[in-house]
Specification:
The protein is of the alpha+beta class. It has six helices and 26 strands. The protein is elongated and about 80 Å long.
């Protein structure tokens, strides 16, 4: 079997599928990329049994067949080759030869029959979405997912499709982010996708050159397809907490302020906050928001920002890092802070919500 391919094309596709290869596994075959040459085309496969990626390779081939090669070795080889010109891969007698210019590598392969089969959803429903839209939605919520893999019900992103909307929700128990987009579908379903799978999907979408992608769901697996890449993710079979119970029903105070002014004030406040209690106190009185933090060993800081307020004055404290990360994912120049009271969750959102909101729990004032 022989494959002739542009160096940039080979490097791009190997980079994409390699992200799915597990770093630790008891089965050596799982550390491989499977090359599948057939009449339908040449495809690269990789999987960690939770997420699978299939990428079409734009190349010229001679003969059909399959071989599996260590992903890390192949990735490093391809990275060292010039990113111009053609690369020739030749497979024979269990060895893969990689040639480019005057460089030639020979590496061992593994039995392709041992490679796990990645199956795509065959039933269920499908819908088309803008690649940019779904990528932005993931970006606006994924940072809130719990990083601890033992928190399985929070270590991922919850997908909710219904009433003509797609909603993505993530939470680590201290904060929550929700992004929604209207869709031309009447399908209804909800499921949880692991944080690891979401990061791999996010990486593929960020490098996607297509304007539209297709999502398929069969009750157990979710797939996202472009013209040359298919990603399949297993649904995490555990219930996501009822996030709607956290969303405030009514507010006593609404504060509108400049996002950039608050970002700058928070950055300065964190100079002291990170050396002390990791908290920032917000005091809203009339048209001024006072932001302060203190540390017994490092001093104190106070910032003032002019705001527009409706409702009661309020005093509450929050983790400043959580506030900063929320503001970085809001795209309007001004933001709304909606308060119930000093001990209830704070809702942060763009003006008029605009398909995105962020909830953060307060902390005890010290």
């Amino acid at each position: 079997m022989k494959i002739t391919v542009e160096a940039s094309e080979l490097s791009n596709k190997i980079s994409i599928v390699s992200k799915t290869v597990p770093s630790k596994t008891i089965k050596p075959i799982m550390e491989c990329i499977l090359f599948d040459l057939s009449q339908e085309g040449t495809y690269l496969h990789a999987t960690d049994l939770e997420t699978g990626v299939k990428a079409a390779l734009d190349c010229e081939t001679e003969e059909f067949g399959k071989f599996a090669v260590d992903a890390k070795i192949l990735y490093e080889i391809v990275r060292t080759l010039p990113n111009e010109g053609k690369v020739q891969l030749s497979f024979s007698s269990g060895l893969l030869s990689v040639e480019s210019g005057r460089s030639r590598f020979r590496v061992p392969t593994m039995d392709p029959s041992e490679f796990p089969q990645v199956t795509l959803p065959a039933e269920g429903y499908s819908l088309a979405v803008e690649a940019k839209t779904i990528s932005e939605m993931i970006e606006r919520v994924i940072f809130c997912a719990a990083k601890d893999e033992f928190m399985r019900n929070l270590n991922g992103v919850f997908w909710e499709i219904g009433n003509g909307f797609l909603r993505l929700v993530a939470s680590d128990g201290f904060r929550l982010a929700l992004a929604e987009e209207r869709l031309a579908t009447q399908s209804e379903s909800n499921f949880l996708i692991s944080l690891k799978s979401m990061k791999e999907l996010q990486s593929i979408l960020q490098n996607c050159s297509q304007s539209t992608v297709t999502i398929r769901y069969d009750g157990k697996r979710l797939s996202l397809s472009t013209s040359n890449i298919e990603t399949v993710m297993r649904v995490v079979e555990i219930d996501f907490p009822d996030y709607k119970k956290v969303l405030p029903k009514a507010f006593k105070s609404k504060v509108i302020l400049s996002k950039n002014d608050l970002l700058e004030a928070l950055r300065r406040t964190m100079v002291i906050a990170k050396r002390g209690s990791e908290s920032a106190k917000l005091e809203i009185n009339e048209e001024v928001l006072s932001l302060s933090s203190r540390s017994p060993d490092s001093g104190e800081v106070n910032e003032e920002i002019f705001v527009r307020k409706e409702g009661e004055d309020i005093v509450a404290a929050f983790n400043p890092t959580f506030l900063l990360e929320a503001l970085r994912h809001i795209h309007t120049d001004e933001v709304e802070f909606n308060f119930v009271d000093s001990t209830s969750p704070l809702q942060i959102n763009p003006l008029n919500v605009e398909g995105y909101l962020y909830i953060v729990m307060p902390i005890r004032i010290v």
